[in-house]
From TrEMBL:
<dbReference type="InterPro" id="IPR013783">
    <property type="entry name" value="Ig-like_fold"/>
</dbReference>
<feature type="signal peptide">
    <location>
        <begin position="1"/>
        <end position="15"/>
    </location>
</feature>
<dbReference type="InterPro" id="IPR036179">
    <property type="entry name" value="Ig-like_dom_sf"/>
</dbReference>
<dbReference type="InterPro" id="IPR003599">
    <property type="entry name" value="Ig_sub"/>
</dbReference>
<dbReference type="Pfam" id="PF13895">
    <property type="entry name" value="Ig_2"/>
</dbReference>
<keyword id="KW-0732">Signal</keyword>
<feature type="domain" description="Ig-like">
    <location>
        <begin position="296"/>
        <end position="377"/>
    </location>
</feature>
<protein>
    <recommendedName>
        <fullName>Ig-like domain-containing protein</fullName>
    </recommendedName>
</protein>
<dbReference type="InterPro" id="IPR003598">
    <property type="entry name" value="Ig_sub2"/>
</dbReference>
<dbReference type="InterPro" id="IPR007110">
    <property type="entry name" value="Ig-like_dom"/>
</dbReference>
<feature type="domain" description="Ig-like">
    <location>
        <begin position="209"/>
        <end position="285"/>
    </location>
</feature>
């Protein structure tokens, strides 16, 4: 078999005259990031004419520049990654996908025509260890993911080591592999017998917000003037955005997971809803009731019948006050220690001048009391 030597060189017959290079093997598949050894065997005659043949230089190359081979050690693409070993072996460290090429060995002797390049060379292909999430399922305990780990350089049933969060070796098994992960776990795989791992995969499953849960900051009853905070939470990925609404009000109250009342007022009583939303969906919480307790407001007093008070009629004084919890009422007359009546109404039958004077309605509950006066005078005879 004839081979062409680089321009200016002699043409030798492979296996004749004692010049040869063989490559065992001639095809290699290496895992990305590993170290690969390229092997060869070469021979040359002991003598050419009067010259005793001695090898003066050995190189491996993939490229030529100005018709001359470029030594891997001088190739910037391989800087710091080449190690020549005894004989004609070479080690390429941290193999990259860009290293895939045909590699040839060339040796140079002290004879003027004693330069030889072995063809066809070694064909190197490079493949990464690739992890792929085939399918996943959200469960209460986490995310059940089925994954495969493969490399084109390895047989289908080659065993793989599965790594969680960079250190926890889950198991050694052939692909595929199933495992339940927590949110944001990091998983990678490595082929058994090789140190190089796949790219890290984040278990980052997208799902809509769960049913929002509303919690509160107060231990018991809500009292007017207190500070109150409602907090909304929902499990979601991507994380949920929150909006607060009040029942029967069209516009939202605020955005964010917290709804804060620095000094809650009686007008803040009502049902509140939290809406959790991400790009996949939105969900709304159950209504959360804020029942603000407060002392009675200034009581409002009315007379029945209204108008002029005539002697001898039956007159009812009524009292009402806004309060929570509902107020109890007590009627007093000025300068008298004993209450006139308990309840919202005070009825005076057959009213006379002795009933003239200043009366007070006192509204009271567990949060306080408030009273209003009403004066009965200018009683007219019928």
């Amino acid at each position: 078999l004839l081979i062409n030597i680089l321009p200016g060189l002699c043409i030798f017959v492979l296996g004749q005259n004692g010049w040869s290079v063989t490559y065992p093997p001639s095809q290699i598949c290496a895992i990305k990031g590993s170290t690969v050894d390229l092997q060869c065997n070469y021979t040359h005659p002991d003598r050419e004419g009067d010259t005793v043949i001695e090898v003066t230089n050995r190189i491996w190359f993939t490229k030529e520049q100005l018709a001359a081979p470029v030594d891997l050690k001088a190739d910037p693409d391989y800087a710091g990654r080449i190690e020549y070993k005894n004989g004609c072996a070479v080690a390429i460290r941290d193999v990259r996908e860009s290293d895939a090429a045909v590699y040839k060995f060339r040796f140079i002797t002290n004879h003027p025509s004693g330069k030889y390049t072995g063809s066809p060379g070694v064909t190197l292909s490079v493949s990464a260890v690739e992890l792929q999430v085939v399918k996943w399922e959200r469960r209460p305990s986490g995310t059940l993911a089925e994954m495969t780990c493969k490399s084109k350089c390895l047989p289908d049933r080659h065993p793989y080591i599965w790594i969680k969060n960079g250190q926890n070796v889950l198991t050694q098994t052939s692909s595929p592999f199933s495992h339940t992960f927590s949110f944001a776990d990091r998983v990678s795989c490595a082929a058994a017998g090789h140190r190089q791992t796949s790219k890290v995969v984040f278990i980052d499953v997208k799902y809509p917000p769960s049913f929002p849960v509303v919690s509160h900051s107060f231990p018991g009853e809500v009292v007017e003037g207190n500070s109150v905070t409602l907090t909304c939470s929902a499990d979601a990925n991507p994380g949920a955005n929150y909006t607060w609404h009040k029942e029967h009000e069209a516009n939202p109250l605020s955005k964010g997971p917290k709804l804060v009342f620095k000094s809650v007022q009686s007008s803040d009583s009502g049902k509140y809803f939290c809406m959790a939303e991400n790009v996949l969906n939105r969900t709304t919480s159950d209504g959360f009731l804020i029942d603000v307790e407060y002392a009675p407001k200034l009581p409002l007093v009315s007379l029945s019948p209204s108008g002029e008070v005539m002697e001898g009629i039956s007159l009812t004084l009524s009292c009402i006050s806004d309060s929570n919890p509902a107020a109890n009422y007590t009627w007093f007359k000025e300068n008298e220690k004993t209450p006139q009546s308990s309840g919202q109404n005070l009825t005076i039958t057959n009213i006379g001048r002795q009933h003239s004077g200043l009366y007070y309605c006192e509204a009271h509950n567990s949060r306080g009391s408030h009273k209003s006066p009403v004066k009965l005078d200018s009683l007219h005879q019928i």
